[in-house]
Structure formats: C-alpha cells, structure tokens
C-alpha cells in the first residue's frame, strides 16, 4: 500500500510540475502576443486559474509526506513527546475527516460537471470537469496518505521493527 501511495504522490507531483510549466509558458507567450502581435493567448486567465487549482491540490499528499505544510508550533513546542504524538494523531484524524468530506464533495462536483457538460465560456469554451477530477484525485491522494500515516504504527508493530520513515 505504501508503494502505491508513493507512486501516486510522484505522479501527482509530476502533473503539478507540468501544470506550473504550462502556466509559466502560457503567461510568457500571452504577454509577448499582447505586446508584439496585439493578440494574447485566448482564455489565458481562465486556463491559468484552472491550472492553479491543479498546482494547489495535486501535490497535497507529497507535501504531507515530507512534512512541509505550514504549521504554528507556539504551544505544541512545550508538549512532552507523548503529548505531541497524541496531538499529531488527533490532527491527522481531524484532517482525515475534513479532507475526506472535501474529497467526496469534489467527486460529486466532478460528476455533476461531467453530466451537465459544464463549460467555462470564453473564446475556447473550456470544460470544467477535468479540473474538478484533478482536484478530486489530489484530495484522494491526500486522504490515502493520512490513512497510511494513521495505520503506520499498526503495520510497524506487526513486523517487529522500529517505526519507519514516512517515505
């Protein structure tokens, strides 16, 4: 299970990196087109907004894996190791509940956008369901990562080895 979640992480981060590269390229081309040809890339702002959603949601699982989420440790720094460990488990459980509901909602929004053929109207009339689907996939990856982290003590206790690195 751990290898599957890590593979999903890598794929999602690669897609997010590709989205960033497309955003940068499109912004540059649009600026050049606007100033030199008086013709920017059609719907560049809408496309960049859609790609921004991918950039935010796709790497969530990887960011959790490498522990790089923004956190405030003003009070938790004073806790003993056992208290800190309990607080981290509590935070993961709350995150699992919240992001699980968010993933279910995103999945429902994806299905709805697909069924009604939802379009962002402009020069290109862009379908919105692929962006919803990517957001859903990123949230599902994050939920799987949280489940894996919550289950790790169970798996590590079963093999008789010391707790392993989250990677």
Automatic annotation (TrEMBL):
Main location: membrane
SUBUNIT field: The complex comprises the extracytoplasmic solute receptor protein and the two transmembrane proteins.
Biological process annotations from GO: C4-dicarboxylate transport
UniProt source species: Salipiger thiooxidans
Protein family per UniProt: Belongs to the TRAP transporter small permease family.
Keywords in alphabetical order: Cell inner membrane, Cell membrane, Membrane, Transmembrane, Transmembrane helix, Transport
Function per UniProt: Part of the tripartite ATP-independent periplasmic (TRAP) transport system.
Residues passing through the membrane, by range: 12-33, 45-63, 89-109, 129-148
Protein known as: TRAP transporter small permease protein
Pfam families per record: DctQ
Domain Tripartite ATP-independent periplasmic transporters DctQ component positions: 23-154
InterPro entries named in the record: DctQ, TRAP_DctQ
């Amino acid at each position: 299970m751990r290898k599957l979640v890590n593979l999903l992480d890598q794929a999602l981060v690669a897609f997010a990196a590709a989205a960033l590269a497309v955003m940068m390229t499109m912004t540059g081309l649009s600026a050049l087109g606007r100033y030199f040809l008086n013709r920017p890339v059609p719907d560049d702002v809408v496309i960049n907004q859609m790609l921004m959603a991918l950039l935010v949601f796709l790497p969530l699982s990887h960011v959790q894996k490498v522990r790089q989420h923004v956190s405030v440790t003003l009070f938790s720094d004073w806790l003993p190791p056992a208290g800190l460990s309990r607080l981290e488990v509590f935070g993961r459980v709350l995150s699992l509940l919240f992001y699980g509901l968010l993933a279910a909602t995103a999945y429902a929004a994806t299905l709805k956008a697909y069924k009604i053929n939802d379009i962002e109207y402009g020069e290109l009339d862009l379908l919105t369901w692929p962006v919803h689907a990517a957001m859903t996939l990123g949230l599902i990856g994050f939920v799987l990562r949280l489940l894996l982290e919550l289950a790790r003590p169970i798996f590590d206790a079963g093999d008789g080895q010391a707790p392993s690195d989250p990677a």
